[in-house]
Specification:
The chain has 218 residues and is of the alpha/beta class. It has helices at 2-27, 42-53, 70-76, 95-102, 146-149, 151-156, 175-185, 202-217, and strands at 30-36, 59-65, 82-86, 112-116, 133-139, 159-163, 190-193.
Length: 218
Amino acid sequence: MKLKVVTKILDANEKIAQENRDVFDKHRVFVINLMSSPGAGKTTLLEQTIKALSPELKIAVIEGDITGTDDAVRIDALGIPVVQINTGGGCHLDASMVQEAISDLPIKEIDLLFVENVGNLVCPAEFYLGEDVKAMVLSITEGHDKPLKYPMMFQHSKAVVVNKIDLLGYLDVDVQKIRKDIYSLNPSIALFEVSCKTGQGIDGWIDWIKTGCLCRRQ
């Protein structure tokens, strides 16, 4: 019975996600579903990314949180269209939430849309929102065991940003193991080691997004 219920939920989500996909296809919007655990640095990464790309791309953000608007306020301060979704306890965004948020965005004018998902290393990977790619942020402060503990996140993502590498000298963490385990789960994943605080390594991530946007427009 539980399997049947879960299947129905996922099937219903897939239908709406495809409707979202149709909208994005029509307007040639490149959409990134950005996932991580709480505190990994998604919003800081978004801020750095927007600053680097906004001179040449029109960007918008859908912010997902259980409650509060702190992250949306930070994005709004950059002059970027942003819509806040509060799940009220839900551990992830679903396609219907994103569909409602799209109606509040100037979608015809957007080149790049980020969906910052709720901080969680399990549920967000299971739900397709209509995005082009899933990408995730992994902070080295979380330890080197996370890829093998939460494999679905890494298997479903096209890119992973390993953040806070400026703290390497202060932590007992094996970055080589992180790399090895990520590639064992997803050999084709794009991996970027960055510090959102110092800007180290951000350029590779920015170039990866530019390539995605360019392909979307062709």
